[in-house]
Write a structure and sequence with these properties.
Layout lengths: L6 H7 L6 H15 L5 H7 L4 H10 L9 H11 L1
Helix pairs in contact: 1-2, 3-4
């Protein structure tokens, strides 16, 4: 895809959701999630999924999602030892 690819073209290529509007909304939500603008709960609500379904969808698409920072992840690794 080139930088001139439209949002509609990207949305149409997503293997999830049925309607182009749903796909565009998903892309918007994905951006807001990764920018940490909205919570997972709010994102799921906006696209009419439960939180677990949204997390599973992100996982199926190969998108790692976490609100944890790298420092948080490192601390968890230390605690697990």
């Amino acid at each position: 895809m080139t930088s001139t690819t439209s949002l509609q073209e990207i949305a149409a290529s997503l293997p999830i959701l049925n309607e182009p509007e749903q796909k565009e909304k998903f892309l918007f939500i994905l951006g807001a999630l990764t920018a940490k603008i909205i919570s997972l709960r709010k994102a799921a609500e906006v696209i009419n999924l439960n939180e677990d379904a949204l997390l599973q969808t992100l996982d199926l698409l190969g998108i790692d999602f976490s609100y944890l920072t790298e420092e948080d992840l490192e601390q968890e690794r230390i605690w697990e030892k």
